[in-house]
Amino acid sequence: MKEFKGKVALITGAANGIGLAFAKEAAKRGMNLAIVDIDSENLPAARAAVEEYGVSCLAIVADVSLYNEVAESVKKTIDTYGQIDLLFMNAGIATAGSITEIPIRDWEWSFAVNTLSHAYYIHEVLPIMKKQGTPAHIMSTASIAGIRAGMSVNPPYFSSKHGAVSIIESVKAEITLNNLDIGVSCYCPMYVATDIHNCERHRPERFRSDEDLFYRSEEYLKARAVFEKNIKNGMPIDTVGPRLFKAIEDNQMYIITHPVTIPYIEERHRNIEIDAKKELEFQ
């Protein structure tokens, strides 16, 4: 996908951070936008920031961990614009704690947002893109955590991001098999200066337990403090948007913004791509 003016982008997790940076970059290119976030407080300001570029922006408050709200966000986008040309599945959360102590609700929340929401959006949007028959692109925000060995400090995050990578790789295989004019990208950053360390503010009630002493434990508080420090010292957010759009224009599958990780990732994914080609040969 190389032409953006007048096209439509649906972006999740767009009230701040990577999603908002991407939305602004899309607006600079003349795209109309549907921005989705559970953060109802900051979403209006994000919409205003995008509309400064003279484009139309539909702001949708939705919990992407719920399939019906995902489907409704897609319907609202189609009802408003009649098309979806670029899907950026960016919403994500990060829990903290060791594999033996972290509550099951944190596993459920992590997979619902970081993994299942991607499956929900693919299920709703890919058929629309196929029917449109015009150049389109699908991108997901995974993480370096999704392609490196797991760590004991945050197993739900690492596991759910591995799931996100696997989903977008499966989308790539589907599109290649059917020779569709739809690009696919998987964004795998390390630390970026976003607002993800404040995701607890938006934890849905069904994943919450204020009585659970774990969330006041030394283990949890220390892990959150380290995570927040790393995020605040991460890559500047204003570098993200241009880099991602360059990847879209080049139809780049794996987007790696931290060079230190490149050798490890290249080796791992070279083997995955070889396996994918073998799968096509066997069919």
Radius of gyration: 18 Å
Shape category: globular
Uncertain spans: none
Please outline the major beta sheet: 7 strands, parallel
Instruction: Indicate the percent of residues in helices.
Output: 40-55%
What is the number of helices?
8
* Class derived from helix and strand content: alpha/beta
Task: Report the average pLDDT across residues.
Answer: 87
Quaternary class: single chain
Number of strands: 7
Distance between the termini: 28 Å
Q: Largest sheet, order of strands side by side?
A: 3-2-1-4-5-6-7
Question: What series of H and E elements makes up the topology?
Answer: EHEHEHEHEHEHHEH
Strand fraction equals: 5-15%
Notable features of this structure?
283 residues, alpha/beta, 12% strand
In short:
This protein has helices spanning 17-28, 43-51, 67-81, 104-132, 155-177, 218-232, 240-249, 262-282, and strands at 8-12, 32-37, 57-61, 86-89, 136-141, 182-187, 254-255.
Can you tell me about this structure?
The chain has 283 residues and is α/β, with parallel strands linked by helices. Helices cover 47% and strands 12% of the residues. It is built from eight helices and seven strands. It has a seven-stranded parallel β-sheet, sandwiched between helices. Strand 4, helix 4 (104-132) and strand 5 form a beta-alpha-beta unit. Helix 1 crosses helix 7 and helix 3 (67-81) packs parallel to helix 4 (104-132). The longest helix is centred in the middle third of the chain and has 29 residues, at 104-132. The two termini are 28 Å apart.
